[in-house]
Amino acid sequence: MSKLVIVGTVAFDAIETPFGKTDKILGGAGTFIGLAASQFNVDSAVVSVVGGDFPQDYLDLLSDRNVDTSGIEIVQDGKTFFWSGKYHNDMNSRDTLVTELNVLEHFNPVVPESYKDAEVVMLGNLHPMTQLSVLKQMNKKPKLAILDTMNFWMDCALDDLYTVMKHIDVITINDEEARQLSGEYSLVAAARKIHTMGPQYVVIKKGEHGALLFHDEHMFYAPALPLEEVFDPTGAGDTFAGGFAGFLAKTEDYSFENMKKAVIYGSALASFCVEKFGTERMVNLKADDVRKRLHAFKQLTQFEIELT
Amino acid sequence: MSKLVIVGTVAFDAIETPFGKTDKILGGAGTFIGLAASQFNVDSAVVSVVGGDFPQDYLDLLSDRNVDTSGIEIVQDGKTFFWSGKYHNDMNSRDTLVTELNVLEHFNPVVPESYKDAEVVMLGNLHPMTQLSVLKQMNKKPKLAILDTMNFWMDCALDDLYTVMKHIDVITINDEEARQLSGEYSLVAAARKIHTMGPQYVVIKKGEHGALLFHDEHMFYAPALPLEEVFDPTGAGDTFAGGFAGFLAKTEDYSFENMKKAVIYGSALASFCVEKFGTERMVNLKADDVRKRLHAFKQLTQFEIELT
């Protein structure tokens, strides 16, 4: 089993959807990635920063699930990163209401000594230079470096993004971001162009329309599970990434064939995340729930056609 | 092998896409359905109407592929239905430029005597009462009646649509139409509601995002093949329906398990249709092309996860 180091925000979210609204609750990419990866019982650590206002209970929630929190710096006189957003009726788009960077503004990630030899590194969505700094702290090149990013960095730190992209194996972005980054409308053409920027594997997340994995001329597609009700999409993409990274760290097999399974695990975990507000569903998730959901994914996608 | 009777337009199309534009070329739902179904060498007949301006070559193109055209009425002093449309840059939306109903305005479908015992009936998109009239001409209730429709009939002939829906087994509509027909946003909830209107099987077509098959609590998903270039989406939905109906007529197995395969065949054939203008790709399609494409669909979707 490989060690997994995760960098990403640990934050407060306040969310409004057609189904209701929350006060400040636990959120952040690092949190969702860590919770998803914890399903695989790998040795993982989250590298992040919070303020003195961050409840110990929230940190315990991660460490109780075998996620090392020693890399989460606590700035006692600072405030935790806060994001608030409101989803539209179709749940596919949202408005950001508040973004308070707070302690994140001067975040300088420090990888715990015992995780500098981790084989898998999951770089959650942050400034590309922050992501690069984590990679540079590793004692040796990881076997697998996965990067998540977003259009914001393409708009305001594109050269830095290009730089970190040269050092990673897998990039996960959504379809619109893939188009923006590549200048190509077709996702097949976009993935091919993104390959030339560094990552050998390109995962394009299409939300309710599933996810595509590209590697050279190979493609694999995992649908999102059609749900009766999507309650809160916050964290679904990070949960996908955490499931993907956690499965690969657990199995130590970084082949395309195994990545197909990782995409299915990521999709299955993400399908739980959206069922409740914030992390609520993920912290109550049992191994048997996951097993049943994976069975549902098989039912949804597998068919028998004999070809000669 | 079952006989298949198809009702649908046989028409002229003029199409403009970012890749070019055509003069009047062969089009129409009945044409695309017939061409797709012809891949399965079933006994099929298209019931339609054309004007005296319709070239014999176009009719021969169907009959050469074992599609019976004796149910295509030729109104010598009338003009063939003509549709012209222009696709936007993303190819997902289009504007209709011209719709000339011509002989379609007084279309009274007549099922050839030798097809009144067909086991499979494919009702292409037409006025619901026209679709119903075909069903009523059958000597006995078909083993499988499939209906394709669109938002236009929901807007202007909803009660008639409800009437014909009570007599069919499968409905194929797109995601927006499923939402309009059911008043439900979630496609899972939409399909459940549409079941109560008649059809036991609901196929929701999501264009580049694939297709979903619903039956009671069972779901199956087939992606669209991600393509380097979509040249002309015209006829893709009808080609899907023709592949679906043709496969089921060929195999005479109307179970959910076999319908899953039919959805894959439909998706595979539709992925060819969009590669060229109009029917160009479909008339040049070889069995070996289809075999290879089905292999690509397996590669795209099949995975091995052992669950206990």
From TrEMBL, chains A, B:
Keyword Transferase tagged: yes
Carbohydrate kinase PfkB domain sequence ranges: 2-281
PROSITE patterns: PFKB_KINASES_2 (PS00584)
Keyword Protein transport appears in the UniProt entry: no
GO molecular function, one term: kinase activity
Taxonomy, superkingdom: Bacteria
Record-linked InterPro entries: Carboh/pur_kinase_PfkB_CS, PfkB_dom, Ribokinase-like
Protein name (Swiss-Prot/TrEMBL): PfkB family carbohydrate kinase
